[in-house]
Amino acid sequence: MDDINLLNHIGIVVRNIDEMIKKYQRIFDIKVDGPIVMEKFQVKVAYIVFKNIELELIQPLKKKGDFYHFLEEMGGLHHISVEIEDVYQIMELLKKQDVKLNSDKPLEGARNSLMVFGNKESLNGVTVEFKQLRR
Predict the structure, then answer these.
(1) Percent of the chain, pLDDT > 70?
(2) Which band of pLDDT confidence, cut at 50, 70 and 90, is reported for residue 1?
(3) CB-neighbour burial class of residue 74 (10 A; exposed 0-12, middle 13-18, buried 19+)
(4) What is the pLDDT of residues 20-51, one digit of tens each?
(5) Cβ(89)–Cβ(8) under 8 Å?
(6) Considering only CA atoms, which of 75, 103, 78 is closest in space to residue 88?
(7) Cα–Cα distances in angstroms (integers) from residue 82 to residues 4, 33, 120, 127, in the given order
């Protein structure tokens, strides 16, 4: 996969995004991008911006959906995100490698991106987000 550029972020599902933002700011005195509401996914997200990586905090807004169920089961680390050049090309490559995807087409992500998630059962227990930034 030559077009995987770098680790983009680590996604963490939380109960209260505002409390977590305050905690990270207090501990690290660090920049925060957000929070923003993503109605389509019924979540609020914010990015804790470190020099070489970001943490994406995800708070479910409704008591339903994948993120809410994940939070109720365990919470915490949800996925790692890798930045790619072409989400369609990666989807084809992953399908050829028998990696199950969470959708048949890319989804609109935060910060003007397209994304698709690789199913954790296909990737040794780790959910991976493949994220194409649109510049």
Answers:
(1) 96
(2) low
(3) exposed
(4) 999 999 888 888 999 999 998 999 999 999 88
(5) no
(6) 103
(7) 7, 19, 14, 11
pLDDT of residue 125: 86
What SS3 string covers the chain?
CCCEEEEEEEEEECCCHHHHHHHHHHHHCCEEEEEEEEHHHCEEEEEEECCCCEEEEEEECCCCCHHHHHHHHCCEEEEEEEEECCHHHHHHHHHHCCCCECCCCCEEECCCEEEEEECHHHHCCCCEEEEEECC
pTM > 0.90: yes or no: no
